[in-house]
Design brief:
Number of strands: 6
Order of helices and strands: HEHEHHHEEEHE
Largest sheet: 6 strands, mixed
Shape: globular
Helix content: 40-55%
Number of helices: 6
Low-confidence stretches: none
Radius of gyration: 15 Å
Structural class: alpha/beta
Strand content: 15-25%
Distance between the termini: 46 Å
């Protein structure tokens, strides 16, 4: 029986990421917001996931970020939507708590509605991957407008791409040093 989950674009990347992590005996954890758990579920759908997956959090609400991701009431008051600084902080915090080699984090605006600033426009997502050495961030606009499900899948694809690229870089490229986090 053919499976419709994960979506084909996500499945291909999750399989590749899983294989890369297994080859290197490395692990991953996930901090998701707008993708709603698609990244975690996709990684868990790969055979042998228990060897590479340390855990994941769906930090959809600001309250969940206080409870599980090191936020404070002050952080919550200052929040103005998803940004690269927000995802970098979440990725670093969750990676340290779960003890993974990598943490991939996404936070975006899936739609169908949004706000007037760029980071509140449906289809915008901020991404970060953290590891002991530092972190990398990236912003993407999917171009899918208010297609909530399409954006959620696209956010997962972009997150897995960033993770795959970070693993393949083998710690080369542009990293923000740990002390700068």
């Amino acid at each position: 029986m053919a499976s419709t989950f994960p979506p084909p674009a996500v499945r291909e990347l999750a399989t590749e990421v899983s294989a890369l992590l297994k080859e290197r005996s490395e692990t991953v954890c996930v901090a998701e917001t707008a993708a709603g758990g698609i990244i975690s579920a996709s990684l868990l759908s790969t055979p042998g996931a228990s060897k590479i997956y340390k855990g994941g959090l769906t930090l959809y609400t600001l309250e969940s970020r206080i409870a599980f991701a090191g936020w404070t009431e002050e952080t919550k008051k200052e929040y103005k939507g998803p940004t690269m600084d927000v995802v970098k902080g979440l990725a670093v915090n969750v990676r340290e708590k779960l003890g993974a080699t990598y943490c991939i984090c996404e936070s975006g605006t899936a739609g169908p509605t949004g706000g007037s600033t760029r980071n509140r426009t449906p289809g915008y997502v901020a991404l970060a991957v953290a590891l002991e050495k530092g972190s990398q961030t990236k912003e993407v606009e999917t171009g899918l407008g208010g297609d909530r499900e399409g954006n959620m899948v696209a956010f997962a694809v972009e997150g897995l791409r960033l993770l795959r690229d970070a693993i393949k870089q083998n710690f080369e490229g542009t990293w923000i040093p740990r002390s700068g986090i």
